[in-house]
What we know:
The model has no long low-confidence stretch (mean pLDDT 78). The protein has helices at 2-11, 13-34, 39-50, 56-63, 68-83. The termini are far apart. It has 84 residues and is mainly alpha-helical. Helices cover 81% and strands 0% of the residues. One of its GO terms (biological process) is negative regulation of transport. Keywords: Acetylation, Cell membrane, Cytoplasm, Cytoskeleton, Endoplasmic reticulum, Membrane, Transmembrane, Transmembrane helix. This is PRA1 family protein. The chain crosses the membrane at residues 6-30.
Amino acid sequence: MVASYMLISLLGSVMTFMTAITLPLTLIAAHASFRLRNMKNKLENKMEGAGLKRSPMGIFLEALGQQEENLQKIQTFLEGKVKE
Length: 84
C-alpha cells in the first residue's frame, strides 16, 4: 500500500485517472473487437436458446433459480417503470 501511495503521489492525478478509468475501458474495447462472431458461435447460441446445450453460466443460474423467464419478467417490469 505504501508503494502504491508513493507511485500515485509521484505520477499525479492525471496518471491515476489514466490507469484507473481509461485502461479498463480500453481493455474492454479491445476484448470486444477481437471477439470472434463466426458461424460456430452463432450455432452454439441457437442450440443454447433451444435448450439442446447448456452453458456453465446457464447451469449456475438455474441452480440459483434464476430462469430466463423470471429475468425477462423483471426486465419488462423495470422498463415499464422507466417509461412512467
